[in-house]
Amino acid sequence: MQEGISGKVANIFINSKLTILLMVALMAIGIYSSFLIPREEEPQIIVPMADVLVGYPGASPTEIESRVVKPLEKIISNIKGVQHVHSIAMSGQSMMIVQFYVGENTEDSYIKLYDELMRHQGMFPPGVTQPLVKTRSIDDVPMLGLTFWSENYDDFQIRQIAEEVTSEIKKVKDVSITKVIGGRNRQLKIVLDKDKMAENGVDALSIMQLIQANNSSSQSGSFVKGDQEFLITTGKFLTSAEDVNNLVSRSL
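Request: output the structure for the sequence above.
Response:
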């Protein structure tokens, strides 16, 4: 059988006494090189990322997708250095996660994204809010997740417990951000009497504006007395269902 080039080379190494020495030398070089290569437990990888938040009050997810998300995706995808664009359309708002290529300059990437959004801000229909850019980091990943559940407490009570735990976690040294997801926030449901509204000539919008106007507190000035300055606060927040009921009853 006639041997080819690879067979001849293999025979040379099989029959040569230097093969073992070469293997030992290569292993020694590999071990020595492993000590020279710098190592990090958490190597820093530069991956510029940003969230683009756009609000469209009253619009459905389908409307937001067709009128906001898709046009914005085309604009952002054409930015040099953008690798991926992930979009989420929700009722009244949308969020787009923009990821640049690994190694792109972080500051330059954010500037290019912001400039491109500002250049096309007139493309949106009336009612769409100005895009809000929120930067991300490769280190912005959760390190610990806690799940609360109970057979005796409802979702509102569980969220209250979780918020109390969150307050304690924030006191721990080197804790940056904590976030509570899920549960039910404290809410107040208002049921309007159509007949009484018709009698008094008011509509739901005017009642909503009345509640918003009275659910606020602001600094209205100050005065000095006895070498002391006193701040004046006007208005207060609604704290109970009775406050809202009395407010609407007075208006009717």
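Residues 142-187 form one domain.
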